[in-house]
Amino acid sequence: MDSKTAQKWQKSWKDAQIFVPKEKGKKYFITTPYPYISGSLHIGHGRAVTETDIIARYKRMKGFDVLYPLSFHITGTPVLGISAAIKSGNQKMIQLYKGYIKTYISDEKEVQKVLDSFKEPQKIVDFFTPKMIEEYSGLGLSVDWSRTFTSGDMTHQQMVDWQFKKYKQLDYLKTGDHPVLYCPEDGNAMGEDDIKDADSNKVEKQEYTLLKFKFEDKFLVAGTLRPETVFGQTNLWINPDAKYVEVKVGDENWILSEKAAWKLSFQKKQVKILREIKDLIGKTAIAPGINKEIPIFPSTFTNPDRVTGIVTSVPSDAPFDYVALRDLKENKELTDKYGITDEVQKIKVIPIIKTQRYGDSAALALTDKHKIKNQNDPKLDELTKEVYKEGYHSGVMLENAGEFKGLKVSIAKEKIKQHLTKKGLADIFYETTRIAYSRSGGEVIVAVLDNQWFIDFNSEGWKQKAKKLLGGIDLVPDSYRKQFEETFEWLDKRPCARRRGLGTKFPFDKDWIIESLSDSTIYMTLYTIQDLIIKNNLKRENLSEDFFDYVYLNSISLDEASKSTGIDKELLKQLRQRFERWMPNDHRHTFSLHLSNHLSFMIFAHAALFEEKYWPKMISFHGLIVRDGGKMSKSKGNTISLLDIKEKWGADTFRFYITQSTTLDGTFDWKDKEAKNAQNTIKKILAEGKQAALQRKKGVVKPLYKSKFERIKKNATNYLENLKTREYNNQVVFNTLTVIKEAKKDLDEKHLASFYDYMLDDWIKMLTPAIPHTAEEIWAHSNEGLVSAQSWPKYDNGLIDDKLEYMSELAESLRLDIIDLQKLVDVNAKKLTIIISEKWKYDFLSKLKDITSDSMDYQYVMAEMMKTEHKKRGKETVALLQYYLKNISKIPKFLVSQEEEISALKENKKNLEKEFGYQIEIKISDGKGKKALPGRPGLLLG
RNA sequence: GCGGAGUUGCCGGAGUGGUCAAACGGGACAGGUUUAGGCCCUGUUAGCUUAGUGCUUACGCAGGUUCGAAUCCUGCACUUCGCACCA
Predict the structure, then answer these.
(1) Which nucleotide is nearest to A36 (CA to C1')?
(2) pLDDT band at A441, cuts 50/70/90?
(3) How confident is the model at residue A128, as a pLDDT?
(4) CB atoms within 10 A of CB A803
(5) In this model, does residue A158 exceed pLDDT 90?
(6) Is the distance between the Cβ of A119 and the closest atom of strand B smaller than 7 Å?
(7) What is the DSSP code string of A39-66?
(8) Given pLDDT bands bounded at 50, 70 and 90, which one contains residue A928?
(9) Taking chain A, what is the end-to-end CA distance rounded to the nearest angstrom?
C-alpha cells in the first residue's frame, strides 16, 4: 500500500472525527509517555504509540468512548543544548539540524532561515511540534490531537506550579546540600552529556572520609575510602614535590594540597587559603581513632591532584602503603636525607582485619604472592581492589579495633565513620571517580550545592500510600511488580530543581527550574481539560492554584473558585466534570526502562495528590527497539525514521511487523529482510481480502469452517483483552489465512463464496486495530463507511465444535500417514485399504479415559480395567493398556464412535482418491493383520 | 557491590506438571506450478529404525521431587537491565 492510499484513509478518519471522544458512555482513558522533541522521529518512538493505538482502537470498537491523547516533552537541557550548539557555530549540530529541516523544506534559503531561528530554543519546539504530529499521524494513530500541549506550555507550567505548591503544603519538599558533578570553568553542573567521553567511560561522585590529624594547632587531612582501617595506621604519606597549603575552613585550619584546597572551596562554605606549608616530612601528627602520634613520610605515589594529596598509611590492608614502606626501608639514601631513617625502620605492620582468604594482613599476603617489586608496579591497583573487596565481604575487625572488634567490615565502616565524625575527627570530601573534563575543556570536580530542593519520598506516610496505589494497579506483565517494590524501598530524596534548562520555574525560588522528570508525573490529567482551556482562551492568571484546587481536587467551593480565577461558573463546572469523567488513567503503556524513575514518580505523585478513585489503573510495558541486533543511534546512522516507514515500508507493515514479531515487553529487532516479509504478508491479506469481497455470496456455510472462524474470533478477543498483541495477530492474520487456504482447497465455489460472506466483515474488523489502512481498503470493496468506526465482532461459542475440528484433524493425519507410507512402499500400488479398528477398542478407550481421569498410576489403571468386561481379552487389553499409558499423547482427545469414524472416512474418501489416485476400500478390522486403533486406522497398500 | 529479568530447535520466539520432538513466524533443503524469477502449493528440517503410527537423545549445567518435568525445588554457570538529577 502506498503512502497516498494511507493518507487518504487518515484524512477520512480525521474528517469523520471518529477519534475525538464523544464525552458520553463508558470511557477508556489510555496514555503513553510524551516523547521528547529533539529532531525527527524514528521507529523507537513509533513502538509505544503504535501499540497503544492498537489497544485504543480495539477498545473503541468494543464500544468504549476512548481518549487517546499525545503531547510533547521539551523540559530540561537537550533543546537548550541544541540551540546553544547552533548558536556557537557547532558544524556537526548545524549539519544535523539542516538535514532535519530539509526533510520538510526544500528551499535552501528557507532552510537557513529556520536554522537561524533555532538560536532561540522555543523556535525549535515550535518548528518540530507540528512536524512530529504529522509524522505520528502517518502511522495511522487514532489520537485526538485537539488536546495536545508541550511541557513548556503555559497550562502545563501552571499545573506543575500547582503540583509543587501542594507538595510544599504536604511538607514533601526539603532543602539541603547536594553534591553534583560541576565544572568551575563553565560555572555549571554537569550531566553525562556535558562531560567528555562520559557515555563510554562513566564519571561518578565518590564520597571519601576525611581523617583529621592534629598537627600543632591545625589538622592535616587525609582522604580514605576505608575509615575502618584507622586502627592500622603507621604513618602519613605526602608527596615531596607537591605544594601544600593551610586553609581556614570554618573555625579550623586544615593542611592539604593546593589543588585539594581549591576543590574544597566548592564543597565547603568559607574556605580561605592562608599560606603554603613546607617541611612536613619527618614531623608527626596525631592519628584519629587511635590517638597516636605517627610520622610523616615522603612518597611519590601520593598524587596531589587526587583527594587531599595526603594519604594515611595502613600497610596491613593497603598494598600501596605496604610496598611504599618496604621501598622506603631499603632506600637509606632518601631516609637519611630527611633524617627519618630510624623512624622508618621502626615501623611495623599492624594487623587489624581478618579475612577468609588472606589472613590478618591482606596487603602483605597479596603483594608477596604476586611478587610486587616496587610501588610503580601496575598490578598494585588491581590488588588494592581485591583487598578492598575481600575485606568488605569477609573481613572481621580484630582485637585492636576496640569497641568495634568482631564487627564485620561492612558494618564497622559506617560505625567508625560516624564515631569519628561525632568526635570532630572526620569529615566528608567528594571526588570524581576519574579525572574528567567538560566538553569545553574545563576540569570536572564535585561541588556541593546548598539550597538544593528535594522531593523527599521518605516523607511521613507517603511511601505507604504509594505502595497502596501500586497494590491496586494492574501491571502487564506482573513480573515487574517486584522491581517496583524494590525501587520504592530505595527511593529517598530526589533533587527536583536545576539551575538551567527549559521548563517550569520552581515556585519557591525562581532561580531554579523544576527538573524534567519531576515535572512530568501528573500531566495526563491535563488531557482531560486541555481542549477546553484552549477553546475558552483561558490565560495564565486564570489557571491559578485555586483553579486546580477546584478542578482537580474539588477542595474549594465553586463560588470561591470562580471569584478567584475569574472563570465563569458554568465553565468551571464543566472542567471539573471533564476531570471526573476521564480520571483515572485506565491504562498507561510505557517503556520498561521508565520503571525506576518516571513510573515510580508518577505513582508517588498520584498517591500524594489525588483521591484513590483517580489513581491509575493499569501500566503495561514495552521493550526496546534494536536493529540487526544492535542499538540504533544517530551516530551509527542505522536509525529508521518514521518518514522512511511512511514512504518505504508503509504504516501497516510497521504496525504488523512490530506486533507479530515480538511480545509486548520483548525487544524488537528490526531486520529489513523480515520487514520485507511483513510487507508481503500485508499484500497477501489485501489480495485474499479483495478476492473474498468480490466472490462473497450468501449461502450455507459448512459448520467446520464456522467453528474454525468463531474460534479465531474468540481467541483474538481474549488475547487482545490480555494485551497479547502478538498472539492476537497470529490469530487474525496467520491462522485466518490458513483457514482460508484450507477452505479454498476443500470447498466448492459456492460453499467458498458463502464462507467468504460469512467471515469477511468480521475478519476485516478484527484486522483493523493492527492494520487499519489495509482493513479500510478491503472494507471498501464490499461495504460502506469506515471499518474503523465499526463494532468489534462478537463470537458465537455455540458454533465452536471441538469434535468436528478434531475429526478434520483425523482426516489430515490419515492423509499424512498415507504420504509416509508411500515413501516406504513401492509406488506401483493401485489400491488402498483403510482398516477401521475393532468395535471393542472404542469401548476400551472410553473406559480408559474414565479411569485415567482419576489416576494415571499403572497399578490402579490396570486393576480398574480388569474389573470391566475387557478382562476376558486379557492379553490384548494389557498390551493396549501398556501402549496407551506409555504414550499418553496417543489417547484421543475426543472419542469418536466407530460409526462416526466410518462415515467421516466415507466423506473423505473422494478427496483422498483424487489426491493419491488409489482406489480406496474401507474395512473393519477382523483382529488379524494390520493394527488399527480408534482414530488411527490401519493402512494396507497394494 | 545491590536489586530486577532471563537462558527452549538453524534463527526470532510460544509453551509453566501429562494432549510436547515442542505453537506461530522466518531461514534452509527437496518437489510441484511457471518461458524464467517472484508469488503460490506440497513435503523435509535431533538421530536411528520401520508396511508404517516404534526407540533413543533433547528445552543453560548438575542434582532432587513425581507414576510422569521444558514446566516444580536446590545449587552452579552465563546473559541482560536499572542504581537518581539523565531525558
Answers:
(1) B87
(2) confident
(3) 93
(4) 13
(5) yes
(6) no
(7) SS-BHHHHHHHHHHHHHHHHHHHTT-EE
(8) low
(9) 53
Q: Does residue A501 come out as left (phi exceeding 0), alpha (psi in the -120 to 50 range) or beta?
A: left
Residue A536 (CA) to nucleotide B69 (C1'), in angstroms, measures 66
The residues, ordered by sequence, that sit 6+ positions from A888 with a Cβ below 8 Å of its Cβ are A852, A856
Among residues A848, A915, A913, A921, the alpha carbon closest in space to that of A886 is found at A848
Of residues A64 and A450, more confidence is placed in A64
Nucleotide nearest to A457 (CA to C1'): B84
Give chain B positions with protein CB within 7 A: 1, 3-6, 12-14, 18-21, 23-27, 39-44, 50-55, 67-68, 81-87
The residue among A416, A187, A415, A199 whose CA lies nearest residue A314 is A416
A828 beta carbon < 7 A from strand B?
Answer: no
- What digits encode the pLDDT tens for the residues A378-413? 788 878 888 887 788 778 899 888 889 888 887 888
Q: How far apart are CA A808 and CA A806, in angstroms?
A: 5
pLDDT of residue A367 exceeding 80: yes
Listed range (A46-60, A548-562, A824-838) with the worst mean pLDDT: A824-838
Q: How far is the CA of A454 from the C1' of B83 (A)?
A: 18
Residue A127 is given by DSSP the state: H
Please determine, for residue A476, whether its predicted confidence score (pLDDT) is greater than 90.
Answer: no
Evaluated on CA atoms A693, A694, A695, A696, the torsion sign reads positive
In this structure, the number of other CB atoms found within 10 A of the CB of residue A648 comes to 14
The predicted complex's ipTM stands at: 0.91
- Does residue A827 lie within 7 Å of nucleic acid chain B, judged by its CB? no
Residue A3 CA distance to nucleotide B25 C1' (Å): 26
> For residue A732, what are the CA distances in angstroms to A643, A666, A743, A768, A830?
27, 21, 16, 10, 42
Determine the nucleotide nearest to A890 by Cα–C1' distance: B19
> Within 7 Å: CB of A660 and strand B?
yes
> Most confidently modeled of A40-49, A252-261, A838-847?
A252-261
Q: Are A453 and A172 contacting, i.e. CB atoms less than 8 angstroms apart? A: no
Q: Which nucleotide is nearest to A79 (CA to C1')?
A: B87
Q: Side-chain half-sphere of A92: how many Cα atoms within 13 Å?
A: 4
Question: What is the model's pLDDT at position A854?
Answer: 74
Reported as a single tens digit per residue, the pLDDT across A836-847 is: 888 888 888 888
Number of residues that make up chain A? 942
pLDDT of residue A929: 60
Asked if residue A144 has pLDDT above 90, the reply is yes
Extract the C-alpha cell encoding A237. 604519606
The full DSSP string for A158-185 is HHHHHHHHHHHHTT-EEEEEEEEEEETT
Cis ω for the linkage preceding A584 (within 30 of 0): yes
What is the tally of helices (H) and strands (E) in chain A?
34, 30
Rounded average pLDDT over A811-822: 81
Residue of A812, A836, A840 lying closest to A929 (CA atoms): A836
| Cα A548 to chain centroid, rounded | 32
Tell me the C-alpha distance between A388 and A474, whole Å. 43
Instruction: Give the pLDDT score at A794.
Output: 94
Residue A669 CB in 7 A reach of strand B: yes
CB A452 within 8 A of CB A179: no
Cell of A357: 582468604
Q: Which of A190-204, A238-252, A348-362 has the lowest mean pLDDT?
A: A190-204
Shortest CA–C1' contact from A35: which nucleotide?
B87
Instruction: Give the SS3 label for residue A224.
Output: strand
> Residue A222's pLDDT is what?
95
A644 CA vs B86 C1’ separation (Å): 29
